[in-house]
Specification:
This protein has helices at about 10-15, 20-30, 35-40, 115-125, 140-145, 150-165, 175-180, 190, 195-210, 235-245, 270-290, and strands spanning about 55, 60-65, 85-90, 95-100, 130-135, 170-175, 215-220, 250-255. With about 290 residues, it is α/β, with parallel strands linked by helices. The protein has an eight-stranded mixed beta sheet, with helices on both faces. A hairpin with a 4-residue loop joins strand 3 (about 85-90) and strand 4 (about 95-100). Helix 4 packs across helix 11 (about 270-290), helix 6 (about 150-165) runs parallel beside helix 9 (about 195-210) and helix 9 runs parallel beside helix 10 (about 235-245). The protein starts with 8 loop residues before the first helix and ends with a helix.
Amino acid sequence: QNPETNRCEHFESYFKKGKISLSFLKQIENYRNIKNLITEKYVILKINTDYKKVSCPKSSFIIGYFGQSNSANYVNQKSKATIPKNLYQYNWKNNSCYQFKEPLLGSNGEGGNSITSFATSIAKNYKGNILIVPYGIGGTTIESWAHGELSLISEQIYKDLRKRKLNVDLFLLHQGETNSSQLIYLNSVVKSKYSKPYLKNLLMVIDQTKKYFPRSYFGVSLVSFCGNTKSSKYIVNAQKKVAELRENVYVSANSDSLNKKKYRTDGCHFNQKGVRLLGAMYEKSFKKNIFNY
């Protein structure tokens, strides 16, 4: 905020570039900063005394996990797995680290999280520390992550991490369900051309991570299925394509293949059986593309 003009000049520059709306710009001015706005709008989980704050571990392998509700705290039950002592989480709201505990700080929802199965497995097999940075938000679109309000909070998170010399090694994105549901209302001609704009936005999301963490890897899940919304080839094809267009980008999991009721609580959100299989996919692709253990 500029004390002379009483305006949030950084965000206004985004407005002038057509990245955010005037109404959203005005909302920002009613808050101290973008973090407060996103926290209130999406009801991000608040810290309570059950979470143990720790110093952010040095020499950590850091994983950023984001996307829609299946990357947030919407698993119907919390994991019963024993949490390794070398597994931690970073809360972007106060730039602090905590022992790993569900529901994860920084995402919305109050249940378990789909990263837990993979995170506990890699922590058990890795000599160093594992730090998870969760910032998944239910119901969000690729447009919001690419050039909307969530791109602003992502950028702030990345800046805060860099400032604290916490360099993210891997980003995992689980997004596509909301965009897939929007295709239901489009005619076949428009649908057939949808891969291109989705791909463009997905590349923007990836490029933003590369701007701050150029040596990081990026894992994209094949995601478009949710309840009555069937898997969309237009979205999945775009998700597959990015691995060909950017270095160190790979397909991390085929989430759409876990489309049976036995893997999902309500036809959309994963149950514990589903997240274990999703975690196994994350682990397999991790070993293939980053390092084996």
